Each structure stands twice: as C-alpha cells, then as structure tokens.
Amino acid sequence: MLFNSLAFIIFAFFFFVIWPLVKSRLQLSWLVLIVFSCVFYGWWNPYYLILIFLSGFIDFFAGLGMDKHPQYRKVFLGLSLTLNLGLLFTYKYLDFFISNANILVQALGAPPLPLAHLVLPVGISFYTFQSLSYTIDIYRGELRPTKNFLHFFAYLSMFPQLVAGPIVRASGFLDQLKKPLRVRTQDFWQGLRFISKGYFKKVVIADNLAPVVTEAFSTPTVYESSAYWWLIIVMFSFQIYCDFSGYSDIAIGLARWCGYRFPQNFNHPYTALSLQHFWSRWHISLSTWFRDYVYIPLGGSRIGPIRTVFNLWITMLLSALWHGAAWTFVLWGALHALYLTIERLSGWPKLLRRLCGAGALLACLLTYLQVLIAWVFFRAENLQQGIDIVGEMFSFSGISIQPILKFPNSEIILTALTLISLREIFIPLKRLAGIPSWWRVCYYYAEPAMISLMLFSCVFFRGPGSVFIYFQF
Hints:
- The chain is mainly α.
- It contains 19 helices and no strands.
C-alpha cells in the first residue's frame, strides 16, 4: 500500500480511530498493530506475508534459544543468518547470480541455466536487516529476547516503516512498544509537520522531477549536451533524496501520532563537507547498521590503514549489493569506496578547510560533485549508459536543455528543484549564523501556515503518482 494513495488515507483513518482505544492495553495494541500491518503489506500481495512471518518465527525462536541455551548461541545465530540471508539471496540475487554464471556456462559450450524469474517482495531488505539486528544483539549480550511473539512481531511488522525504513533496532524500540507515550498536542503538531513535509517532498518535488529523469534515462541514445546531463543528474539527486527522505518523514510522523519515536534517517546530506560526513547524514539507519554489524566486526579502523581500507571496501560493496542485484550498483558502491579511501588517506576535506576562507564551501561542492557522479551509475540502465553519460557530462559539448523545457509542467519542475536547492543551502547558513530569538517566534506562528501551504501544494501541484524508489530494495 502506497502512502500517496487513497487506499492508505482510508486505511490510516480507520487505524487512528481504533488506536487510541487500544494502545494502553499491550496485548491488544500489539495485535492491532500486527493486523493493520498485515493489511498494509498484504495489500500489494498477501502471499509475501508468509516471508515476513517466516523471518519473524526464525528470529523469535532463535532469540529464545540463545537465551535458554547460551552454549549454542553460535548455532542459533547461524540458523538465523542462514535462513534470513538465504531468503534474501533467493528472491533478490538468484537471477543475478544465474545470469552471470551463464556467461561462463555458455563460454564452455553448455546450455544456459534457466532463470527463476522470482518477483522481489517489497521491503524484504529492510525487514530482513531489522530482524537480523534482533538476533545479533541477543548474541552479543546487548539485548534480552522478548518471550511474547506478539510483542516481537509488532516490532518487526510495524507498518509505517515496514517497506522502506527507517530500519528500527529492537534494542531501541521493543521497550517503546511496552509503553507508548501519551500523544500530546505538541506531538500531534510535530507528527503533522513531518507528514506534511514528507508528502510535499514526495508528491510535489520527487514526483514532478521523476518524469523528466525517467525519460532522460529511457532514451536509447545519450543526448549530446553537457548542461542537459548535469541538470538531469542534479534533478535525480533531489528526486531520490526527496522520495526517500519523504517516506522516512511520513513514517516518523505516523509513529509520533502512535506515541512512538523513530530515529532520524536523513540530515541534509547534500550539505556534507566530506564523503564520511555524507554517509553520517544519508540513510542513517542503514549506514549505522553496516557500521555496527559489518565494518566494526571486521576490525573497523583498529588494525592499521591497509586493513581499514579493506574493511571499508567490503562494507561499501555489500551496501551497494543491498541496494540491488546489478553491476551498476556495484560500481556505485566502488566509487564511494574509492572516494572514502582517498579521503581517509589524504585528509583533503580538512586540509581544504584550513587552506582558504571559502574552504568549507569548496569541500561541500566537491563532495556533492563526487556524489553526483556516483548517482549516474546508481540510476543508469546499464554500465555502458552510465559511462556514456559521464563522458558527455565532462565533454562540455553543449548547453541545450530543450528536452526538459518541452515538458508541459517544466515551470513547476524547475521551481520545485529551485525550492529544494535553496532550502538545502539555507539550512547550513542558518546553523552558522545561529537562530535569533525573533526567528523562533516567527517560525512558531508561521508553522501552521507553512503546513497548510505544503498540503495545498500536495493537492494542486502534485506530480504524476509514482511508487517510492526504495520499494525496489
């Protein structure tokens, strides 16, 4: 079920009518959360509810087994990892593996292996990682397992973040499920602010940018204009940012209305002053997951510079494959690993900020430039298209943006891009200058008008409805 659909509006209405009546009764509140979450997820395809329940049962009983038989902790953890990652591999990577294996098979003169053609379940990467964090934390002794399956499954299946995050850790959320906070007037307005901002990002900005970006990458030949492709990639950078952070904002706002707190998932990543800084601001729940469960267990930065670089590359390549089974994603991850390696060995962002007065601005621009180049391969249909686009970007062959201007709503598209760009520029300037008391007062009284304006824009300036980008992951 899509947040930006009439079905979800009706679904949310019934949920928030029932929720205040049951949330103080724990067992009933968990059951209601599970039932509504199953409706939310099963709206797309009820069959794939089986996979969520299977992952849930595996990790629930693995957690109990580790607690009751600590001498077999490794066995239970191995069972959890094998079955969960096995399901993820089968549905997400099996055809990718077979396709690449067929290259070798055909070179040897053997007939190609048949593809499985399995449909990727929405959100499988998110709930798999969320469930694994539960068993890994129990294995480490950082979490005691819950003995109530309703309690655990309410955590695993909670609908606001079920299919596209943020990835909520059991260690920070199981206790919240035991005692939801009272939703005060302030919480209601905070939730409404997050939801309004999320919908504005998604339906006004991301959905208006999407048709232009889609057409650019769907064209068989690369349009010969450097300016065009630079603008397209900037558009995509804000499309994916507003699409994904918009989903996270809506999820955080819905959770606030339920009396829960979800972690922040984005913090103005395009104002980052380095790639390391960028990854501390982009998809925070995933980057910290890989840091805590992959990078640090591999040794992190504790075993010397060579091993640190190795650990960094492994982490980034696994993160890339998490996003999708394609060589374009692998190259995207490799580029970020290369950027981070150069940055770690040279320390150029700090040196740049020390060398000149505008060093911070230059560091921000260079970081964004690196991110843009990597986004080309993230979005490209194939490696060759990505290479051709980057080549065109740096050929400086033309300034025509005619294909963008031909869209009937090009004014809205360019206005949306300008608005989000100015907003991202304004945030760090506001932090540098501090926030004067008069601004806080103005913001307090203007906030209802801002929320109203965003909701008005969602109704009258929305783009063509589209699925959230991260549903494919």
